[in-house]
Design a protein that fits this description.
The complex is a heterodimer of chains A (about 110) and B (about 110). Chain A has about 110 residues and is mainly β. Chain A has no helices and twelve strands. Chain A has strands at about 5, 10-15, 20, 25, 30-40, 45-50, 55-60, 60-65, 75, 85-95, 100-105, 105-110. The chains are: A mainly beta (about 110), B mainly beta (about 110).
């Protein structure tokens, strides 16, 4: 069935390191792909989305490119800060029948000063 | 800036009790949702409501029921809580409920079942 897979459960980096969080999806057609971020004690916040092949989404220095060939939407940031520490979710928007947003398992990012 | 408001923030109860959580959105959105986030941070959709009509119900136990008085409110009732219901319940809304829309989440209600 339709699903989203995030490879990394936890990522630990130092400030100014490069970040990659891998996201792969399984779905037919061109589903909308999203990244959300969740800080402690809050609900997930929309980061950005992409809806077609080769489209790049970006926000706050984070970016990801929709790749239908590899069914991926990997999150990247060139230089992380301590304030980026949070849980990051990749998500898939499905519109077959009724609409719903399917979330990946989440990646806990910890950035040390 | 928060525009989806959930009450209470925390609730502790015993097995078999009934609980109800409230959610209100001030964005004028047509669709609202309830998600369950377990202790491993997994997010699963429970319900969505559009114009007072239930759209999605993902194999949720019958003891859970959504309740809506208007499109700005979507409450969640659990008739007789079980230990596995301990989780964070997140309410969200979106403009129309179509595939490329972003969701706006509340801060969540954390339920602990003793």
């Amino acid at each position: 069935g339709d699903s989203v897979t995030q490879t990394e459960g936890q990522v630990a980096l130092s400030e100014e390191d490069f970040l990659t969080i891998h996201c792969n999806y399984s779905a037919s057609g061109y589903p909308a792909l999203f990244w959300y971020v969740q800080y402690p004690g809050e609900g997930p916040q929309f980061l950005f989305r992409a809806s077609r092949d080769k489209e790049k989404g970006s926000s706050r220095g984070f970016e990801a490119t929709y790749d239908k060939g590899t069914t991926s939407f990997h999150l990247r940031k060139a230089s992380v800060q301590e304030s980026d520490s949070a849980v990051y979710y990749c998500a898939l928007g499905l519109s077959s029948g009724s609409w719903q947003l399917i979330f990946g398992s989440g990646t806990q990012l910890t950035v040390m000063p | 800036e928060t525009a989806v408001f959930q009450t209470p923030n925390y609730h502790v109860t015993q097995v078999g009790n009934e609980v109800s959580f409230n959610c209100k959105q001030t964005l004028g959105h047509d669709t609202m949702y309830w998600y369950k986030q377990d202790s491993k941070k997994l997010l699963k959709i429970m319900f969505s409501y559009n114009n007072k009509q239930l759209i999605v119900n993902e194999t949720v136990p019958r003891r859970f029921s959504p309740q809506s008085s208007d499109k700005a409110h979507l409450n969640l009732r659990i008739k007789s809580v079980e230990p596995e219901d301990s989780a964070v319940y997140l309410c969200a809304s979106s403009l129309q409920g179509v595939s490329n829309e972003r969701l706006f989440f509340g801060h969540g209600t954390k339920l602990s079942v003793l």
